[in-house]
């Protein structure tokens, strides 16, 4: 979900290591295979045939406007500046202009119309069809196909920006929404940790048994404020077998007011009114919920696992053995552990010239799959160790888990005792389900109101609530969408 990715991806592995763009990603740019100046390792290849200045992009004067971190993201700005210096050392013909504009669905149209958008910019998994249909992203299929590392990219993430067989963006990083559990709180109540292959009933029982309202301890802290409240709840909609919308003959129709939707909303109400398991002050935003977990005031929180674990260990002083990442629970035994699949993507401005687009692609992928990046990983792990802190890998990287590069990364992780280790059984249970492609944030905002009503008023009718919400979303948002 785009509301959270700026915070989430700031902390993601290669957003930290490879100089993230916009504070939530790891910008990178390795040379395409057809670059005569480099070989597959990114080093000089003196035997390559020379090109004429007219054909050789490295001999042309080119200016690109790059996506740059916000002013308060000083560390990321330092890392981006380092990347810019290294890039210009390789491509002295390129002038780089920094632009810290952050993507907004309400601003992108104006940016494109006024030709003020950067040469490339960051966006989210939800935006692919929206941007492609409006012509606000360049088709980079040829650049992609000529890139030697394309087959090592994580297909689960990259496929979100492949539309009708054409490539429109490069994945930066991603997440599958998970539940993180405070094992110490459970043990303090004499409870046994549930199986990773758990269910809603298991989550309910843990939340109910751990909750201690008099001490300000909740069993679970679902987000109840802002769009994140609707985002959290949507995981349960998916687990119950529901969908947000359908698209038939160019018409987008709200379908979340289904039997599955009722089941998911009723489960939320059980946590609130039967188990008394959520915080008394339940109006928590994303940061509030994460903070509640790191302070030991809730046993469970729903978010990208990396963010919760990072905050708990390195800010909250918790121990790795007390923080366990779980998949989202299945609605019932044998069901899918669906968690919302989200991520960050860098897309190229279609108004840029072909040379500018190619150089932007090279900048985006400049640090991908390089030995320098591997060294950066190890340097960061060592720096964390010196500070008495932990290095938290993200469960979902830009590179495929079976790639050669993934093996090199894992070999580095295995050398250090301050690298957090996920239960290996987790990855076989995670089931990422992409967010809806149309009106997602409008849906989340509407459902946040429903969640808040459900938490504040006992005895509300779930079906009626969802029918009203679906009607509102349909008339105010979905009916205005034209799917080509």
UniProtKB/TrEMBL annotation:
The keyword Signal applies. Residues 32-56 are annotated as: Disordered. Pfam families: SBP_bac_1 (PF01547). The keyword Phosphoprotein does not apply. Residues 1-19 form the signal peptide. Keywords: Signal. PROSITE patterns: PROKAR_LIPOPROTEIN. Residues 32-47 have a biased composition (Low complexity). Coiled coil: none annotated. Gene3D superfamilies: Periplasmic binding protein-like II (3.40.190.10). PANTHER family: ARABINOSE-BINDING PROTEIN-RELATED, SUGAR-BINDING LIPOPROTEIN. This is ABC transporter substrate-binding protein. It comes from Paenibacillus apis.
């Amino acid at each position: 979900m785009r509301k959270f990715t700026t915070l989430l991806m700031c902390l993601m592995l290669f957003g930290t290591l490879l100089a993230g763009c916009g504070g939530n990603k790891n910008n990178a740019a390795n040379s395409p295979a057809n670059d005569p100046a480099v070989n597959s390792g990114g080093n000089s290849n003196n035997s390559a045939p020379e090109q004429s200045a007219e054909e050789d992009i490295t001999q042309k004067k080119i200016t690109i406007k790059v996506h740059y971190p916000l002013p308060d993201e000083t560390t990321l700005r330092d890392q981006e500046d380092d990347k810019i210096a290294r890039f210009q050392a390789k491509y002295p013909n390129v002038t780089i202009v920094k632009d810290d504009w952050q993507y907004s669905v309400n601003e992108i149209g104006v940016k494109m119309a006024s030709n003020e958008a950067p040469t490339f910019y960051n966006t989210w998994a939800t935006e692919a069809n929206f941007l492609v249909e409006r012509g606000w992203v360049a088709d980079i299929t040829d650049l992609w196909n000529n890139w030697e590392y394309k087959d090592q990219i994580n297909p689960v993430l990259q496929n979100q920006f492949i539309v009708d067989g054409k490539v429109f963006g490069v994945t930066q990083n991603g997440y599958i929404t998970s539940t993180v559990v405070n094992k110490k709180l459970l043990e303090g109540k004499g409870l046994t940790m549930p199986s990773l292959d758990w269910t809603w009933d298991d989550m309910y029982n843990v939340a109910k048994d751990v909750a201690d309202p008099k001490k300000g301890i909740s069993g679970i802290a679902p987000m109840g404020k802002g769009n994140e409240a609707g985002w959290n709840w949507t995981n349960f909609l998916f687990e119950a077998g529901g969908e947000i919308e359908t698209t038939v003959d160019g018409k987008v129709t709200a379908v979340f007011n289904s039997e599955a939707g009722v089941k998911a909303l009723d489960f939320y109400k059980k946590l609130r009114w039967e188990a008394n398991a959520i915080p008394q002050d339940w109006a928590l935003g994303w940061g509030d919920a994460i903070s509640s977990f790191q302070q030991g005031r809730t046993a469970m929180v729903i978010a990208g696992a990396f963010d919760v674990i990072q905050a708990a260990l390195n800010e909250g002083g918790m121990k790795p053995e007390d923080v366990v990442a779980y998949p989202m629970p299945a609605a019932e035994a044998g069901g899918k552990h669906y968690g919302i699949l989200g991520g960050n993507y860098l897309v190229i401005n279609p108004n840029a010239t072909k040379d500018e687009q190619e150089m932007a692609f090279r900048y985006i992928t400049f640090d991908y799959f390089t030995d320098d990046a591997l060294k950066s990983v190890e340097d960061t792990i060592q720096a964390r160790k010196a500070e008495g802190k932990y290095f938290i890998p993200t469960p979902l990287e830009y590179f495929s888990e079976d790639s050669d590069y993934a093996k090199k990364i894992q070999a580095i992780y295995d050398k250090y005792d301050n690298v957090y280790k996920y239960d290996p059984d987790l990855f076989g249970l995670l089931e990422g389900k992409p967010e809806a492609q149309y009106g997602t944030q409008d849906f989340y905002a509407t459902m946040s109101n429903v969640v808040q009503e459900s938490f504040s008023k006992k005895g509300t009718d779930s079906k009626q609530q969802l029918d009203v919400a679906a009607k509102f979303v349909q008339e105010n948002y979905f009916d205005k969408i034209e799917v080509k």
